[in-house]
Amino acid sequence: MSKRFAIGAAAAALLLGSTALAGAQETGATIGMQLEPPNLDPTAGAAAAIDEVVYANVFEGLTRFAADGTIVPALAREWSISDDGLTYTFTLAENVTFHDGSAFDADDVVFSLTRAMAEDSTNAQKVLFEDIASVEAIDPATVEVTLGEPNGSFLFNLAWGDAVIVAEESAGSNATNPVGTGPFRFENWVQGDSVTLARFDTYWGEAPALETVTFKFIADPTAAFAAMMAGDIDAFPNFPAPENLVQFEADPRFAVIIGSTEGETVLGINNSKAPFDDVRVRKAIAHAIDRQALIDGALFGYGTPIGSHFAPHHPAYIDLTEQSNYDPERARALLEETGLSDGINVTLKLPPPSYARRGGEIVASQLREVGINAEIVTLEWAQWLEQVFTNADFELTIVSHTEPLDINIYARDDYYFRYQSDEFKAIMAELDETSDEAARNDILKRAQQQIADDYVNAFLFQLPKTGVADARLKGLWENAPTQANDMTGVYWEE
Amino acid sequence: MLRYLARRLLVLALTMVAASIVIFLLMSVVPGDPAQFMMGMNADPAALAALRAELGLDRPLLVRYLEWVGGLMIGDFGQSYTYRVPVSQLILDRIGLSLPLAFLALLLSIVIAIPAALFAAQRHNRAGDISVMGLSQIGIAVPNFWFAMLLVLLFSVTLRWFSAGGFPSWEAGFVPAMKALTLPAIALALPQASILARVLRSALLETLGEDYIRTARAKGLSRGQALRRHAFRNALIPVLTIIGLQFSFLLAGAIIIENVFFLPGLGRLVFQGITQRDLIVVQSVVILLVFAVTLVTFLVDIAYALIDPRLRRGTL
What is the CATH number of the domain that holds A428? Predict the structure, then answer.
């Protein structure tokens, strides 16, 4: 008995010791991420992990996403738009310096935007800048951007990580040594392990509460769980194992933060391949899927059903889930109508994320119920990108489209689901010419309706943001309007 | 001995040339474009082409092969597509973890295995022997990642003596670094020690039947003394083979353990390189590992020859 007491006492002492240690460290935070960024330059790479480290922390754009997804001023403090919607005049923040000490002014904006749209640009989202006709520095604090044609999404485009402002002197080395204007400067990168940022003392805006932020990369879900439990990690904003969330919820040391992402998860259908070129077949697939069963099975109940390619938290969202409700009878009838009542054999190509792998199993069994035999083919990301995304060599696939407000992909003829609709393109053209918020929202509603009517894809669910954090760490983003871990407002509660 | 050495060295060189060709060709037929992977969905085709040109992926295969091998000769492994830093720097960083970890695990397994084997051999078919063999059977059967997870649960999550993983780098100091390597080394060493103990035990038992042992016993040495003084040295050859194999395994094959403990080691570098299509990293690390394995085999061969002079002259 006394022996057991001694062990208990030793364990308690250790626990106390480690808490005391944690108390002393509360000027910084360690944030867990599943994927390591390949480099740290958001203007030359598409990996979400880049923005998750540097967006709003190290780099800033003219505008930025706020936590609720709205577009707010950043380096551009205010702006005016000409009546024809073509000329944007930005007034820039003053007394801004880059982390290497050089001053920020209008020339840096001209440089950054010109570089992003240049012929040899390796900006992954070059398309964001394609409407820009010219960028001009009027004076050090004023920039004028002229568009070739009106683009109602322009301020939104400027908020992307791919549109951050960089300096000519440091642009070339941002991949390994990022130099921005943000509240944190890059300090150290132990490749394969972690990236450390430190508070930038002469930041032009409000100083963040944290002195240091360390992003630690833990790919394995079980290891992520252990690291959280052992107190190695203060927060895991996108925790990879939803099955463990219940356990965290029950533990007062932790807070579970469930929010929404910009990730519309779809069962992608190759519209150009028979029999999917028949809208009735696509409709049958949509009716064959029980979204709630899918969410329960693949995401342990977290996630919101969607009926079109649109985020439920956006003001223009309309709920179209009823239009493709779970109705296997209807699905079978539709297949019969098209002469496919004997059943069809298709392949379902799945990329690595667990929502796709787990979801794919459930979708396949639901499709089997109505006579569609989906053979599952699992692919690595690189393979998926090449086969499915680039070459459209697929019949069905499951993927989450994580970019914000990306409904315009349905206007691209060569996009992997090969949807071609002049009506939809006309709607997108109208959207581009409109900058009034209310009018834009009406157009976006029509766009959602159009693709739901055409059953382009089977729309599954909005990917949830399932985060876990130390209960005393406050100010983390609940939702993910863009893929970022904005640490500027994060602090430790006393 | 010299001719033996020269022959072995020639084999080593030829192996390396053959390996470099095979590895390079394999990498060039792997599906998935590195540039596409980096640019992701929605990538602009013009930007994609620009990146391919920047990475040199648009040049002919032979040019890329010769450039790579030419670079290897002078220690230039090229530049990582994704990280945009020299591959040699990445490898050096990772070796700084993988090599000590492999040594530590190997050392641990030897320290456990030798006494256990001696102990078992002395008690052949008695309770001590049977229990050591039983334990080693468990050690081999239990997957090391599972054992690793148990270690994490006990020492990190429950007792909080060690952190659950990660590596603070050697700059953080010797003690924190070693602390981070302790649990992974134990997890790696256990199955290795079990194999080693079994091999050494049977080798010892085999030598016990030899004439020189009988002579030694006749001169009055106890079974244990005969084992330690005479049988041990002769039982070392199969053990060395195993150790050689284990070292190569520990260096490259620790991927799963590196994942459990999220350690930035060589195994995970290759794994990441494959999924990210950072082919230059993959081919460079693989050729390095081939080199390490052939070198270890070479050294083991030399060690054989030193232990057993008969092998120097033989046709082995």
Answer: 3.10.105.10
